[in-house]
């Protein structure tokens, strides 16, 4: 199969606009989604036949399913104009100095590899469709920990990937999951052996650089019995006048007595549609924690989910959304109690300013016979001006009487008395508003490692600029 592309396309797509970096791509597909493009991606990656078969079945599902209309407005997405596969380098590097200088400069600006040297157990950096850099501390490799980009995971551990791939989120789950299953590239494959605790976080950083680019990483995490891992991801993109699409799938299997924490600090530019499916299967006495911070993007639709499948399984979802002018952050969480004596907690915090729109969308399901289950849902919304909007769409399907269910929801504006008190202590109005907002998000910020909490507060400060006056 031919993989030739016209070089003028590459120059056009890598034009420098508002933070974009000039990149000479080693390969890029033609724009638009088709069987040819899917086959080209699989061929270029030299994948096994079963993966190509899965991709093609997913493509049929994508074409058959209608665009979601129940959430944010997705009518401006033009699937025919998007580039579904862009390869910035020919291979993944494990030495920072071997990366192309243009890519090194991009990641140096956001703190990689400085953060790696300081406190990270492993780092994976993805640029466009492919991982470009990967590193894992040797002592973790010696314990049997696997932390690879997803493509390397498929090559080196094909049987394990085949065992779990698509079992938590099948291609037929929704239209965007089908799209990811058809054109996925990059992402992380993490395997933690039984009893191994990875006390230092693993990190992945995702960058969309090109105009009209799509990024479709696929992340699969398997935590064996009694293990622990904290995985952190960050995301950025430059600003263009045209729209880009980020549609990831994250599948996590938490086995008996294991614990996984998955933290996201997402700051896509305001031309990116961020449409992500994240789900966990949690087995007996396991624990899953989602910590989800959403700041950038034009539209976000993301609802981290926990399926509690074993007695005593627990799931916590902490969601933060900040929407400014022209943004709609539709976020929340889902908990399905598929075993007795399971517990879930969903805490959603949202902030809207300058006509920004936030929505909490969540679901708690407890079928008949699931005795002793507990669930708490807390939704708090803060409006910074009279033009902003916040909506709440909670769904609770409780079919068992022997349960404990709590639901709280508040929406309000920053109080004039709060501002007056802080300003009487010498703060400006902007400083006072920022302090109130910082206090509002504190329950989520305290759950993030210090370095990332600092980054999140910095993003809040940037978003607060222009909120007064």
Query: Span from first to last CA?
Result: 59 Å
Largest sheet: 12 strands, mixed
Strand content: 35-45%
**Unreliable parts:** 1-23, 116-121, 237-241
What is the gyration radius calculated from CA atoms? 22 Å
**Mean pLDDT figure:** 82
InterPro entries: Fe-S_cluster_assembly_SufBD, SUF_FeS_clus_asmbl_SufB, SUF_FeS_clus_asmbl_SufBD_core, SUF_FeS_clus_asmbl_SufBD_sf, SufBD_N
Protein name: Fe-S cluster assembly protein SufB
Organism: Candidatus Kerfeldbacteria bacterium RIFCSPLOWO2_01_FULL_48_11
Pfam families: SUFBD_core, SufBD_N
Provide the descriptors you would attach to this structure in a database record:
469 residues, Fe-S cluster assembly protein SufB, SUF_FeS_clus_asmbl_SufBD_sf, SUF_FeS_clus_asmbl_SufB, disordered N terminus, ten-stranded mixed beta sheet, Fe-S_cluster_assembly_SufBD, 25% helix, alpha/beta, single chain, twelve-stranded mixed beta sheet, 12 helices
Secondary structure layout plus pairing:
Elements: H1 7-13, E1 27-28, H2 35-45, H3 49-64, E2 86-87, H4 101-109, H5 114-118, E3 122-127, E4 130-136, H6 138-142, E5 146-149, H7 150-156, H8 158-164, H9 175-183, E6 188-192, E7 202-207, E8 214-215, E9 218-223, E10 228-236, E11 244-246, E12 249-254, E13 259-267, E14 272-282, E15 287-294, E16 299-302, E17 305-308, E18 314-323, E19 328-337, E20 343-352, E21 357-366, E22 373-383, E23 389-398, E24 403-413, H10 416-423, H11 429-445, H12 450-464
Parallel strand pairs: 3-7, 6-9, 7-10, 8-11, 9-12, 10-13, 11-14, 12-14, 13-15, 14-16, 14-17, 15-18, 16-19, 17-19, 18-20, 19-21, 20-22, 21-23, 22-24
Antiparallel strand pairs: 1-2, 3-4, 5-6
Helix pairs in contact: 2-3, 3-9, 7-8, 10-11, 11-12
């Amino acid at each position: 199969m031919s993989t030739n592309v016209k070089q003028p396309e590459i120059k056009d797509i890598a034009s420098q606009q508002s933070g974009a970096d000039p990149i000479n791509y080693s390969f890029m597909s033609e724009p638009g989604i088709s069987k040819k493009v899917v086959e080209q991606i699989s061929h270029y990656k030299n994948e096994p036949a079963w993966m190509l078969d899965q991709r093609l079945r997913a493509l049929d599902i994508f074409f058959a399913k209608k665009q979601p209309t129940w959430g944010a407005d997705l009518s401006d997405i033009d699937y025919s104009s998007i580039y579904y596969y862009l390869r910035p380098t020919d291979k993944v590097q494990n030495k920072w100095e071997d990366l192309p200088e243009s890519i090194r400069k991009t990641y140096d600006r956001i703190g990689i590899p400085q953060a790696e040297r300081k406190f990270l157990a492993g780092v994976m950096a993805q640029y466009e469709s492919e991982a470009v850099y990967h590193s894992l501390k040797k002592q973790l490799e010696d314990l049997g920990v696997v932390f690879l980009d997803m493509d390397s995971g498929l090559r080196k551990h094909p049987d394990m990937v085949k065992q779990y791939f698509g079992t938590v989120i099948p291609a037929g789950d929704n239209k965007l999951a089908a799209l990811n299953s058809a054109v996925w590239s990059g992402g992380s494959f993490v395997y933690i052996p039984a009893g191994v605790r990875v006390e230092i976080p693993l990190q992945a950083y995702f960058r969309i650089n090109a105009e009209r680019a799509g990024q479709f990483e696929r992340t699969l995490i398997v935590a064996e019995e009694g293990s622990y891992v904290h995985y952190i991801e960050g995301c950025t993109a430059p600003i263009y006048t045209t729209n880009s699409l980020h549609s990831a799938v994250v599948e996590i299997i938490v086995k008996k007595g294991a614990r996984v924490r998955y933290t996201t600090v997402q700051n896509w530019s305001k031309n990116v549609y961020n449409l992500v499916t994240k789900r966990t299967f949690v087995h007996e006495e396991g624990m899953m924690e989602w910590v989800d911070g959403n700041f950038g993007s034009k539209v976000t639709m993301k609802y981290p989910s926990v399926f509690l499948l074993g007695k005593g399984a627990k799931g916590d979802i902490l969601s933060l959304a900040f929407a400014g002018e022209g943004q709609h952050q539709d976020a929340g969480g889902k908990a399905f109690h598929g075993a007795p004596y399971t517990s879930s907690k969903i805490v959603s915090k949202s902030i809207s300013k300058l006509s920004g729109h936030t929505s909490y969308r969540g679901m708690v399901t407890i079928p008949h016979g699931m005795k002793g289950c507990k669930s708490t849902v807390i939704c708090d919304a803060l409006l910074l001006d009279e033009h902003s909007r916040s909506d709440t769409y909670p769904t609770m399907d409780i079919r068992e009487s022997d349960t404990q269910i709590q639901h709280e929801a508040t929406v309000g504006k920053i109080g004039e008395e709060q501002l007056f008190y802080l300003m009487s202590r010498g703060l400006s109005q902007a400083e006072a508003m920022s302090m109130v907002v910082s206090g509002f998000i504190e329950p989520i910020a305290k759950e993030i490692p210090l370095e990332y909490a600092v980054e999140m507060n910095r993003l809040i400060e940037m978003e607060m600029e222009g909120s007064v006056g």
